[in-house]
Amino acid sequence: MAQASIAVHKLTSCSGCQSVFLNLGDDLLVLNELVEISHFIEAGLNNFDAEVDIAFVEGSITTPDDEARILKVRERSRFVVAIGACACSGGVQALRNVKDSVGWAGAVYADTEYLDSLAESRPVAQLVKVDLELWGCPISGRQLIATVRALLQGVPPVLPTEKVCQECKRAGNVCVLVTKAAPCLGPVTRAGCGALCPSFGAPCYTCFGASEQPNCDSLGERLVGLGIPQRQVAERFVSISSGLEPYQKAWARWRIPAKQLDS
User: Fold this and answer.
1) Is 202 left (phi over 0), alpha (psi -120 to 50) or beta?
2) Which among 107, 153, 218, 255 would be 20 to 30 A from 115, CA to CA?
3) pTM, full prediction
4) Which of 13-50 are b and which e, b meaning 16 or more Cβ less than 10 Å from the residue's Cβ?
5) What digits encode the pLDDT tens for the residues 162-204?
């Protein structure tokens, strides 16, 4: 592919993954040499109807408008790349899939009449064909540039499938699960963040989604064995990437019955 045209679209999200584009620094100049940006509202380019080679889509399908827009994006794009935990798994919004979101809305808003949300938050791939998923909350700028280069060369990008634990070991980090009894989900989370949180002594929060063959049952047993209450263990699995099946199964196993959990 010669110099490609790209679009960056936003569904329901915090705009964090779009900000990665803007925060690339010198690499933003590199990206500008590689591609022509046709649509990117956050960068001041509003041309939603442009037909492009690559469409990067941030955010989950959470509203009827999201559903309509992603269908149009798919029609106008040669490749669709889902970026971030929201687009790849439903994101934080997917908590509504396992909790009483109607009750939450009533507690936050005085009048819910004008709220127009779907019953569930879904990843982009559940509605349209997605050619590639870039995980993260937010995504990695390094992986973004590498992905664009690979697509321009017509080869599949090499993306990590190993666990955050491998990144921790290579960084020389002391395991927070072992030494602090912290509820770290690094053993079941995909690498790609550089083990950012454990490097500062904090547990992993599943930002990059489920790793290859995640053993959530075994990890959950270990967390309960450390004395962490079952309810807290369940909630650890459904946070940033709560829409993923392995994490939802772990939540279902360790949770207190839903009525008690939401009370």
Assistant:
1) beta
2) 255
3) 0.90
4) bbebbbebbeebeeeeeebeebbebbbbeeeeeeeeeb
5) 999 999 999 999 999 999 999 999 999 999 999 999 999 999 9
Full DSSP string of 128-192: S--SEEE--SS--HHHHHHHHHHHHHTS------SBHHHHHHHHTPPPHHHHS-----GGGBBS-
CATH of 4-153, picked from 3.40.50.2000, 3.40.50.720, 3.90.1640.10, 3.40.50.700, is 3.40.50.700
Name 30's Cβ contacts closer than 8 Å, sequence gap at least 6.
24, 145
Residue 82 tokens, joined: 């889902």
Q: What are φ and ψ of residue 79, in 5° steps?
A: -125, 140
CB 238 within 8 Å of CB 95: yes
Residue 30's nearest CA partner among 164, 142, 194 is 142
CATH 3.40.50.700 residue ranges of the chain are: 4-153
**Across-strand partners of 145?**
none
pLDDT tens-digit map of 10-53: 999 999 999 999 999 899 888 988 999 999 999 999 999 999 99
Give the pair of three-digit tokens for residue 86.
């929201």
Note the pLDDT tens digit of each residue in 204-249: 999 999 999 999 999 999 999 999 999 999 999 998 998 899 999 9
* CB distance 34 to 148 below 8 Å: yes
Query: What would you report as the CA-atom Rg of the chain, rounded to the nearest whole angstrom?
Result: 19
